[in-house]
Amino acid sequence: MNDLALAAGQALRLVAVADPKLVDIVLLSLRVSLTAVLIACVVGLPLGATIAVGRFPGRHTLVVILNAMMGLPPVVVGLLVYLLLSRAGPLGNLGLLFTPTAMVIAQAILIAPIVAALSRQVVEDAWSEYREQLRSLGETRSGAALTLLWDVRFSLVTIVLAGFGRAAAEVGAVIIVGGNIDGVTRVMTTAIALETSKGDLPLALGLGLILVTIVLTLNAAAYVIKEAAQLRYG
Amino acid sequence: MSASADMRAPLSLLPLRLEAVRFDAGGRRIIDGVSVTLAAGTRTVLIGPNGAGKSVLLRLCHGLLRPTAGTIAWSARELPGQARRQAMVFQRPVLLRRSALANVAYALAVARVPPPERAARAREALRLVGLETLADRPARVLSGGEQQRVALARAWVLHPEVLFLDEPTANLDPGATHEIEGVIAAMHAAGTKIIVVTHNLGQARRLGDEVLFLHQGRLLERTPADRFFKRPASAEAAQFLEGELPW
Predict the structure, then answer these.
(1) How many angstroms separate the CA atoms of A207 and A212, rounded?
(2) CB-based contact (8 Å) between B98 and chain A?
(3) pTM of the model
(4) Would the N or C end of chain A have less CB density within 10 A of its end CB?
Protein backbone atom coordinates (compact mmCIF):
# COMPACT_ATOMS: atom_id res chain seq x y z
CA MET A 1 0.00 0.00 0.00
CA ASN A 2 2.86 2.30 0.93
CA ASP A 3 4.53 1.45 -2.36
CA LEU A 4 1.48 2.59 -4.24
CA ALA A 5 1.25 5.90 -2.35
CA LEU A 6 4.95 6.50 -2.84
CA ALA A 7 4.77 5.66 -6.53
CA ALA A 8 1.72 7.84 -7.02
CA GLY A 9 3.45 10.77 -5.34
CA GLN A 10 6.51 10.42 -7.55
CA ALA A 11 4.32 9.95 -10.59
CA LEU A 12 2.50 13.21 -9.92
CA ARG A 13 5.83 15.00 -9.48
CA LEU A 14 7.06 13.65 -12.84
CA VAL A 15 3.90 14.94 -14.48
CA ALA A 16 4.07 18.27 -12.64
CA VAL A 17 7.64 19.06 -13.62
CA ALA A 18 7.02 17.80 -17.16
CA ASP A 19 9.87 15.31 -17.01
CA PRO A 20 11.48 15.47 -20.50
CA LYS A 21 11.62 11.71 -20.91
CA LEU A 22 7.97 11.44 -20.03
CA VAL A 23 7.02 14.31 -22.33
CA ASP A 24 8.87 12.70 -25.26
CA ILE A 25 7.01 9.44 -24.73
CA VAL A 26 3.64 11.19 -24.52
CA LEU A 27 4.30 13.27 -27.64
CA LEU A 28 5.37 10.24 -29.66
CA SER A 29 2.26 8.39 -28.52
CA LEU A 30 0.04 11.22 -29.63
CA ARG A 31 1.86 11.61 -32.93
CA VAL A 32 1.60 7.92 -33.78
CA SER A 33 -2.01 7.43 -32.70
CA LEU A 34 -3.33 10.68 -34.19
CA THR A 35 -1.65 9.95 -37.53
CA ALA A 36 -3.10 6.45 -37.47
CA VAL A 37 -6.57 7.85 -36.73
CA LEU A 38 -6.25 10.33 -39.58
CA ILE A 39 -5.33 7.58 -42.03
CA ALA A 40 -8.05 5.30 -40.69
CA CYS A 41 -10.62 8.10 -41.21
CA VAL A 42 -9.47 8.92 -44.72
CA VAL A 43 -9.95 5.25 -45.61
CA GLY A 44 -12.70 4.22 -43.22
CA LEU A 45 -15.26 7.03 -43.49
CA PRO A 46 -15.71 6.92 -47.28
CA LEU A 47 -15.61 3.12 -47.19
CA GLY A 48 -18.28 2.95 -44.47
CA ALA A 49 -20.50 5.49 -46.24
CA THR A 50 -20.10 3.74 -49.60
CA ILE A 51 -21.11 0.39 -48.15
CA ALA A 52 -24.00 2.06 -46.33
CA VAL A 53 -25.63 3.50 -49.45
CA GLY A 54 -24.29 0.96 -51.95
CA ARG A 55 -26.02 -2.00 -53.51
CA PHE A 56 -23.67 -4.61 -54.84
CA PRO A 57 -23.23 -8.38 -54.62
CA GLY A 58 -21.47 -9.51 -51.45
CA ARG A 59 -22.50 -6.44 -49.50
CA HIS A 60 -23.85 -8.40 -46.53
CA THR A 61 -20.72 -10.53 -46.38
CA LEU A 62 -18.61 -7.39 -46.43
CA VAL A 63 -20.60 -5.88 -43.56
CA VAL A 64 -20.14 -9.03 -41.46
CA ILE A 65 -16.41 -9.15 -42.19
CA LEU A 66 -16.03 -5.47 -41.39
CA ASN A 67 -17.89 -5.85 -38.11
CA ALA A 68 -15.77 -8.86 -37.20
CA MET A 69 -12.60 -6.92 -37.98
CA MET A 70 -13.45 -4.44 -35.24
CA GLY A 71 -12.27 -7.12 -32.85
CA LEU A 72 -8.92 -7.76 -34.54
CA PRO A 73 -6.40 -8.69 -31.83
CA PRO A 74 -3.62 -6.05 -31.82
CA VAL A 75 -0.89 -8.68 -31.50
CA VAL A 76 -2.11 -10.40 -34.64
CA VAL A 77 -2.13 -7.12 -36.57
CA GLY A 78 1.33 -6.45 -35.17
CA LEU A 79 2.51 -9.84 -36.32
CA LEU A 80 1.12 -9.38 -39.84
CA VAL A 81 2.69 -5.93 -40.21
CA TYR A 82 5.93 -7.33 -38.78
CA LEU A 83 5.95 -10.07 -41.43
CA LEU A 84 5.26 -7.51 -44.16
CA LEU A 85 7.98 -5.13 -43.03
CA SER A 86 10.66 -7.53 -41.80
CA ARG A 87 13.81 -7.77 -43.87
CA ALA A 88 12.59 -10.93 -45.62
CA GLY A 89 9.04 -9.65 -46.06
CA PRO A 90 7.52 -8.18 -49.23
CA LEU A 91 8.03 -4.60 -48.00
CA GLY A 92 11.27 -5.31 -46.19
CA ASN A 93 13.40 -3.13 -48.43
CA LEU A 94 11.55 -0.02 -47.21
CA GLY A 95 13.36 -0.40 -43.89
CA LEU A 96 10.33 0.61 -41.87
CA LEU A 97 10.41 -2.04 -39.17
CA PHE A 98 11.05 -0.59 -35.68
CA THR A 99 10.19 2.94 -36.77
CA PRO A 100 7.24 5.13 -35.74
CA THR A 101 5.94 4.74 -39.32
CA ALA A 102 5.57 1.00 -38.78
CA MET A 103 3.59 1.74 -35.63
CA VAL A 104 1.33 4.13 -37.51
CA ILE A 105 0.71 1.48 -40.17
CA ALA A 106 -0.17 -1.17 -37.59
CA GLN A 107 -2.51 1.10 -35.67
CA ALA A 108 -4.18 2.38 -38.85
CA ILE A 109 -4.90 -1.21 -39.87
CA LEU A 110 -6.24 -1.88 -36.41
CA ILE A 111 -8.68 1.04 -36.29
CA ALA A 112 -9.71 1.57 -39.93
CA PRO A 113 -12.23 -1.30 -39.62
CA ILE A 114 -13.63 0.29 -36.45
CA VAL A 115 -14.13 3.63 -38.17
CA ALA A 116 -15.55 1.98 -41.30
CA ALA A 117 -17.91 -0.40 -39.51
CA LEU A 118 -19.30 2.16 -37.08
CA SER A 119 -19.70 4.88 -39.71
CA ARG A 120 -21.36 2.34 -41.99
CA GLN A 121 -23.96 1.75 -39.28
CA VAL A 122 -24.57 5.43 -38.60
CA VAL A 123 -24.75 6.42 -42.27
CA GLU A 124 -27.02 3.49 -43.09
CA ASP A 125 -29.47 4.55 -40.38
CA ALA A 126 -29.48 8.05 -41.84
CA TRP A 127 -29.83 6.65 -45.37
CA SER A 128 -33.02 4.82 -44.46
CA GLU A 129 -34.45 8.14 -43.30
CA TYR A 130 -33.20 10.25 -46.24
CA ARG A 131 -33.20 7.81 -49.15
CA GLU A 132 -36.50 8.74 -50.77
CA GLN A 133 -35.92 12.46 -50.33
CA LEU A 134 -32.40 12.38 -51.77
CA ARG A 135 -33.47 10.21 -54.70
CA SER A 136 -36.39 12.55 -55.29
CA LEU A 137 -33.96 15.46 -55.58
CA GLY A 138 -31.93 13.48 -58.10
CA GLU A 139 -28.91 12.92 -55.86
CA THR A 140 -26.45 10.22 -56.93
CA ARG A 141 -25.33 7.49 -54.57
CA SER A 142 -21.86 8.93 -54.16
CA GLY A 143 -23.36 12.37 -53.58
CA ALA A 144 -25.70 10.88 -51.02
CA ALA A 145 -22.78 9.19 -49.23
CA LEU A 146 -21.02 12.54 -48.84
CA THR A 147 -24.18 14.38 -47.84
CA LEU A 148 -24.97 11.79 -45.19
CA LEU A 149 -21.43 11.75 -43.82
CA TRP A 150 -21.74 15.48 -43.27
CA ASP A 151 -25.21 15.13 -41.82
CA VAL A 152 -24.09 12.63 -39.16
CA ARG A 153 -20.86 14.54 -38.46
CA PHE A 154 -21.53 14.81 -34.74
CA SER A 155 -21.99 11.06 -34.39
CA LEU A 156 -18.77 10.58 -36.34
CA VAL A 157 -16.86 12.51 -33.67
CA THR A 158 -17.66 9.74 -31.21
CA ILE A 159 -16.60 7.10 -33.72
CA VAL A 160 -13.30 8.80 -34.46
CA LEU A 161 -12.61 9.03 -30.74
CA ALA A 162 -13.43 5.37 -30.25
CA GLY A 163 -10.76 4.72 -32.87
CA PHE A 164 -8.29 7.02 -31.16
CA GLY A 165 -8.95 5.42 -27.77
CA ARG A 166 -8.30 1.99 -29.20
CA ALA A 167 -5.08 3.15 -30.89
CA ALA A 168 -3.70 5.03 -27.92
CA ALA A 169 -4.45 2.24 -25.49
CA GLU A 170 -3.23 -0.79 -27.41
CA VAL A 171 0.18 -2.25 -26.70
CA GLY A 172 0.34 -5.51 -28.66
CA ALA A 173 0.77 -4.11 -32.17
CA VAL A 174 3.17 -1.26 -31.44
CA ILE A 175 5.47 -3.34 -29.29
CA ILE A 176 5.90 -5.92 -32.06
CA VAL A 177 6.46 -3.55 -34.98
CA GLY A 178 8.04 -0.71 -32.99
CA GLY A 179 10.25 -2.71 -30.71
CA ASN A 180 9.91 -0.28 -27.76
CA ILE A 181 13.25 1.36 -28.51
CA ASP A 182 14.08 4.05 -25.98
CA GLY A 183 13.73 7.50 -27.53
CA VAL A 184 12.66 6.14 -30.90
CA THR A 185 9.60 3.95 -30.71
CA ARG A 186 8.73 3.97 -27.03
CA VAL A 187 5.14 5.08 -26.49
CA MET A 188 3.02 5.29 -23.36
CA THR A 189 1.64 1.77 -23.40
CA THR A 190 4.92 0.03 -24.21
CA ALA A 191 6.72 2.15 -21.63
CA ILE A 192 4.16 1.26 -18.99
CA ALA A 193 4.58 -2.44 -19.76
CA LEU A 194 8.37 -2.17 -19.64
CA GLU A 195 8.69 0.05 -16.56
CA THR A 196 6.26 -2.12 -14.65
CA SER A 197 8.30 -5.22 -15.35
CA LYS A 198 11.47 -3.33 -14.40
CA GLY A 199 9.87 -2.13 -11.18
CA ASP A 200 9.94 1.59 -12.02
CA LEU A 201 6.42 2.10 -10.81
CA PRO A 202 6.38 5.93 -10.62
CA LEU A 203 7.11 6.36 -14.33
CA ALA A 204 4.64 3.63 -15.27
CA LEU A 205 1.97 5.11 -13.06
CA GLY A 206 2.63 8.66 -14.28
CA LEU A 207 2.23 7.53 -17.86
CA GLY A 208 -0.89 5.59 -16.94
CA LEU A 209 -2.36 8.71 -15.36
CA ILE A 210 -1.68 10.77 -18.46
CA LEU A 211 -3.09 8.11 -20.77
CA VAL A 212 -6.31 7.84 -18.81
CA THR A 213 -6.61 11.62 -18.57
CA ILE A 214 -6.19 12.07 -22.33
CA VAL A 215 -8.79 9.45 -23.14
CA LEU A 216 -11.21 10.84 -20.55
CA THR A 217 -10.79 14.43 -21.72
CA LEU A 218 -11.33 13.57 -25.36
CA ASN A 219 -14.43 11.56 -24.60
CA ALA A 220 -15.85 14.28 -22.41
CA ALA A 221 -15.22 16.78 -25.20
CA ALA A 222 -16.93 14.50 -27.70
CA TYR A 223 -19.91 14.13 -25.43
CA VAL A 224 -20.26 17.87 -24.95
CA ILE A 225 -19.92 18.53 -28.68
CA LYS A 226 -22.53 15.94 -29.52
CA GLU A 227 -25.03 17.16 -26.93
CA ALA A 228 -24.61 20.79 -27.96
CA ALA A 229 -24.99 19.87 -31.62
CA GLN A 230 -28.10 17.82 -30.92
CA LEU A 231 -29.66 20.82 -29.22
CA ARG A 232 -28.68 23.17 -31.98
CA TYR A 233 -29.27 21.09 -35.09
CA GLY A 234 -31.85 18.54 -33.93
CA MET B 1 -31.94 14.88 -88.08
CA SER B 2 -34.71 17.39 -88.64
CA ALA B 3 -34.47 20.94 -87.39
CA SER B 4 -37.37 20.53 -85.00
CA ALA B 5 -35.80 17.52 -83.26
CA ASP B 6 -32.70 19.61 -82.70
CA MET B 7 -34.50 22.36 -80.80
CA ARG B 8 -33.06 23.04 -77.40
CA ALA B 9 -36.20 24.31 -75.72
CA PRO B 10 -37.24 21.65 -73.19
CA LEU B 11 -40.44 19.88 -74.11
CA SER B 12 -43.05 19.61 -71.43
CA LEU B 13 -42.95 16.57 -69.19
CA LEU B 14 -46.71 16.43 -69.30
CA PRO B 15 -48.96 14.71 -70.01
CA LEU B 16 -47.92 11.73 -67.91
CA ARG B 17 -49.30 8.46 -69.21
CA LEU B 18 -49.79 5.37 -67.07
CA GLU B 19 -50.64 2.22 -68.94
CA ALA B 20 -51.87 -0.89 -67.08
CA VAL B 21 -49.52 -0.18 -64.18
CA ARG B 22 -49.16 -2.95 -61.64
CA PHE B 23 -47.08 -3.04 -58.52
CA ASP B 24 -46.57 -6.07 -56.30
CA ALA B 25 -44.70 -6.12 -53.01
CA GLY B 26 -44.35 -8.85 -50.45
CA GLY B 27 -46.69 -11.13 -52.39
CA ARG B 28 -49.45 -8.52 -52.35
CA ARG B 29 -50.81 -6.59 -55.28
CA ILE B 30 -50.63 -2.95 -54.21
CA ILE B 31 -51.48 -1.33 -57.53
CA ASP B 32 -53.66 -3.29 -59.92
CA GLY B 33 -53.89 -2.21 -63.52
CA VAL B 34 -54.02 1.57 -63.31
CA SER B 35 -54.24 3.43 -66.62
CA VAL B 36 -54.58 7.17 -66.58
CA THR B 37 -53.27 10.26 -68.34
CA LEU B 38 -52.43 13.30 -66.24
CA ALA B 39 -52.38 16.59 -68.10
CA ALA B 40 -50.86 19.95 -67.27
CA GLY B 41 -52.82 22.65 -65.53
CA THR B 42 -55.33 20.87 -63.37
CA ARG B 43 -54.76 20.06 -59.73
CA THR B 44 -55.22 16.35 -59.29
CA VAL B 45 -56.22 14.91 -55.92
CA LEU B 46 -55.71 11.26 -55.18
CA ILE B 47 -58.01 9.97 -52.48
CA GLY B 48 -59.12 6.63 -51.12
CA PRO B 49 -59.20 4.58 -47.94
CA ASN B 50 -56.09 3.46 -46.06
CA GLY B 51 -54.16 0.84 -47.96
CA ALA B 52 -55.70 1.82 -51.30
CA GLY B 53 -52.20 2.36 -52.73
CA LYS B 54 -52.29 6.17 -53.02
CA SER B 55 -48.76 6.80 -51.74
CA VAL B 56 -47.38 3.91 -53.77
CA LEU B 57 -48.98 5.25 -56.94
CA LEU B 58 -47.46 8.66 -56.27
CA ARG B 59 -44.01 7.09 -55.78
CA LEU B 60 -44.40 5.10 -58.99
CA CYS B 61 -45.20 8.28 -60.91
CA HIS B 62 -42.25 10.11 -59.34
CA GLY B 63 -39.87 7.25 -60.15
CA LEU B 64 -39.08 6.22 -56.59
CA LEU B 65 -40.58 2.80 -57.30
CA ARG B 66 -40.54 0.73 -60.46
CA PRO B 67 -43.77 -0.83 -61.64
CA THR B 68 -43.94 -4.63 -61.68
CA ALA B 69 -45.77 -4.40 -65.00
CA GLY B 70 -47.13 -1.71 -67.28
CA THR B 71 -45.56 1.56 -68.33
CA ILE B 72 -45.24 5.02 -66.87
CA ALA B 73 -44.22 7.49 -69.54
CA TRP B 74 -43.54 11.20 -69.37
CA SER B 75 -43.87 13.18 -72.56
CA ALA B 76 -40.26 14.31 -72.29
CA ARG B 77 -37.34 12.39 -70.89
CA GLU B 78 -35.50 13.62 -67.84
CA LEU B 79 -31.83 12.98 -68.45
CA PRO B 80 -29.61 11.75 -65.65
CA GLY B 81 -27.25 14.48 -64.50
CA GLN B 82 -29.72 17.25 -65.27
CA ALA B 83 -31.88 19.12 -62.79
CA ARG B 84 -35.09 17.25 -62.09
CA ARG B 85 -38.23 18.89 -63.40
CA GLN B 86 -40.48 17.22 -60.89
CA ALA B 87 -40.35 17.32 -57.12
CA MET B 88 -42.03 15.62 -54.20
CA VAL B 89 -43.00 16.73 -50.73
CA PHE B 90 -43.41 13.91 -48.25
CA GLN B 91 -45.75 13.50 -45.33
CA ARG B 92 -42.89 13.98 -42.91
CA PRO B 93 -40.38 16.56 -44.10
CA VAL B 94 -36.85 15.15 -44.25
CA LEU B 95 -34.44 18.01 -43.67
CA LEU B 96 -30.68 17.92 -43.37
CA ARG B 97 -28.81 19.05 -40.26
CA ARG B 98 -28.02 22.49 -41.59
CA SER B 99 -29.82 25.80 -41.86
CA ALA B 100 -33.17 26.18 -43.61
CA LEU B 101 -31.39 28.20 -46.29
CA ALA B 102 -28.73 25.53 -46.76
CA ASN B 103 -31.44 22.88 -47.10
CA VAL B 104 -33.02 24.77 -49.97
CA ALA B 105 -29.63 25.55 -51.52
CA TYR B 106 -28.81 21.84 -51.35
CA ALA B 107 -31.49 21.13 -53.97
CA LEU B 108 -29.77 23.69 -56.20
CA ALA B 109 -26.40 22.06 -55.62
CA VAL B 110 -27.76 18.65 -56.61
CA ALA B 111 -29.18 20.30 -59.73
CA ARG B 112 -25.70 21.75 -60.46
CA VAL B 113 -26.75 25.36 -60.23
CA PRO B 114 -23.53 27.43 -60.04
CA PRO B 115 -22.64 28.24 -56.39
CA PRO B 116 -22.87 32.06 -56.69
CA GLU B 117 -26.56 31.85 -57.64
CA ARG B 118 -27.63 29.45 -54.93
CA ALA B 119 -28.00 31.63 -51.86
CA ALA B 120 -30.10 34.29 -53.55
CA ARG B 121 -32.40 31.78 -55.21
CA ALA B 122 -32.78 29.79 -52.00
CA ARG B 123 -33.59 32.96 -50.07
CA GLU B 124 -36.22 33.90 -52.64
CA ALA B 125 -37.86 30.47 -52.32
CA LEU B 126 -37.93 30.83 -48.54
CA ARG B 127 -39.52 34.24 -48.93
CA LEU B 128 -42.26 32.73 -51.07
CA VAL B 129 -43.15 30.29 -48.27
CA GLY B 130 -42.95 33.06 -45.68
CA LEU B 131 -39.82 31.85 -43.92
CA GLU B 132 -37.22 34.45 -44.87
CA THR B 133 -36.75 35.47 -41.24
CA LEU B 134 -35.91 31.88 -40.26
CA ALA B 135 -33.50 31.27 -43.16
CA ASP B 136 -30.43 30.91 -40.98
CA ARG B 137 -31.99 28.76 -38.27
CA PRO B 138 -31.11 25.06 -38.16
CA ALA B 139 -33.89 23.38 -40.15
CA ARG B 140 -34.55 20.45 -37.87
CA VAL B 141 -35.42 22.51 -34.82
CA LEU B 142 -38.18 24.45 -36.63
CA SER B 143 -41.81 23.57 -35.92
CA GLY B 144 -43.52 20.86 -37.99
CA GLY B 145 -45.35 23.39 -40.14
CA GLU B 146 -42.21 25.44 -40.70
CA GLN B 147 -40.26 22.32 -41.61
CA GLN B 148 -42.89 21.39 -44.16
CA ARG B 149 -42.68 24.89 -45.63
CA VAL B 150 -38.89 24.51 -45.92
CA ALA B 151 -39.57 21.26 -47.79
CA LEU B 152 -41.95 23.15 -50.08
CA ALA B 153 -39.36 25.87 -50.66
CA ARG B 154 -36.81 23.18 -51.48
CA ALA B 155 -39.26 21.71 -53.99
CA TRP B 156 -40.15 25.10 -55.41
CA VAL B 157 -36.67 26.50 -55.80
CA LEU B 158 -36.14 24.59 -59.06
CA HIS B 159 -39.56 25.61 -60.42
CA PRO B 160 -40.65 22.05 -61.13
CA GLU B 161 -43.24 21.38 -63.78
CA VAL B 162 -44.85 18.78 -61.56
CA LEU B 163 -45.11 18.70 -57.79
CA PHE B 164 -46.15 15.53 -55.99
CA LEU B 165 -47.37 15.87 -52.42
CA ASP B 166 -47.99 12.88 -50.16
CA GLU B 167 -50.35 13.91 -47.38
CA PRO B 168 -48.39 17.11 -46.86
CA THR B 169 -50.43 18.30 -43.88
CA ALA B 170 -51.29 15.01 -42.18
CA ASN B 171 -49.24 15.88 -39.09
CA LEU B 172 -50.05 19.58 -38.91
CA ASP B 173 -52.51 21.74 -37.04
CA PRO B 174 -55.15 23.77 -38.94
CA GLY B 175 -53.10 26.98 -38.96
CA ALA B 176 -50.05 25.29 -40.45
CA THR B 177 -52.27 23.38 -42.87
CA HIS B 178 -53.76 26.65 -44.09
CA GLU B 179 -50.31 28.09 -44.72
CA ILE B 180 -49.16 24.99 -46.60
CA GLU B 181 -52.28 25.04 -48.77
CA GLY B 182 -51.62 28.68 -49.53
CA VAL B 183 -48.12 27.84 -50.77
CA ILE B 184 -49.45 24.98 -52.88
CA ALA B 185 -52.02 27.32 -54.43
CA ALA B 186 -49.28 29.84 -55.23
CA MET B 187 -47.15 27.16 -56.86
CA HIS B 188 -50.11 26.09 -58.95
CA ALA B 189 -50.77 29.67 -59.94
CA ALA B 190 -47.13 29.89 -61.07
CA GLY B 191 -47.78 27.04 -63.49
CA THR B 192 -46.81 23.91 -61.60
CA LYS B 193 -48.95 20.80 -62.01
CA ILE B 194 -50.09 19.66 -58.55
CA ILE B 195 -50.70 15.99 -57.76
CA VAL B 196 -51.61 15.52 -54.13
CA VAL B 197 -52.52 12.53 -52.01
CA THR B 198 -54.74 13.42 -49.10
CA HIS B 199 -56.89 11.82 -46.49
CA ASN B 200 -58.63 14.98 -45.70
CA LEU B 201 -61.80 15.57 -47.69
CA GLY B 202 -61.86 19.27 -46.85
CA GLN B 203 -58.38 19.59 -48.28
CA ALA B 204 -59.40 17.57 -51.34
CA ARG B 205 -62.22 20.07 -51.91
CA ARG B 206 -59.98 23.07 -51.42
CA LEU B 207 -57.05 21.82 -53.50
CA GLY B 208 -58.59 19.65 -56.17
CA ASP B 209 -59.80 20.33 -59.68
CA GLU B 210 -60.22 16.65 -60.33
CA VAL B 211 -60.34 13.60 -58.10
CA LEU B 212 -58.83 10.20 -58.73
CA PHE B 213 -60.47 7.68 -56.41
CA LEU B 214 -58.32 4.68 -55.61
CA HIS B 215 -59.67 1.55 -53.93
CA GLN B 216 -57.71 -1.65 -53.27
CA GLY B 217 -55.11 -0.72 -55.84
CA ARG B 218 -57.62 0.04 -58.59
CA LEU B 219 -58.50 3.38 -60.03
CA LEU B 220 -62.28 3.34 -59.69
CA GLU B 221 -63.09 6.79 -60.95
CA ARG B 222 -61.78 10.05 -62.19
CA THR B 223 -64.25 12.86 -61.72
CA PRO B 224 -64.14 16.67 -61.58
CA ALA B 225 -63.92 17.63 -57.93
CA ASP B 226 -67.21 19.53 -57.68
CA ARG B 227 -69.11 16.58 -59.10
CA PHE B 228 -67.20 13.94 -57.12
CA PHE B 229 -68.24 15.31 -53.76
CA LYS B 230 -71.90 15.58 -54.79
CA ARG B 231 -72.39 12.50 -56.94
CA PRO B 232 -69.46 10.08 -57.04
CA ALA B 233 -69.74 7.61 -59.88
CA SER B 234 -68.73 4.50 -57.99
CA ALA B 235 -70.51 2.86 -55.05
CA GLU B 236 -67.17 2.51 -53.23
CA ALA B 237 -66.51 6.23 -53.47
CA ALA B 238 -70.00 7.01 -52.19
CA GLN B 239 -69.38 4.70 -49.26
CA PHE B 240 -65.98 6.27 -48.64
CA LEU B 241 -67.44 9.79 -48.65
CA GLU B 242 -70.10 8.70 -46.19
CA GLY B 243 -67.63 7.06 -43.84
CA GLU B 244 -65.07 9.84 -43.80
CA LEU B 245 -65.43 12.81 -41.53
CA PRO B 246 -66.02 15.87 -43.66
CA TRP B 247 -63.14 18.10 -42.48
Answers:
(1) 9
(2) yes
(3) 0.88
(4) N
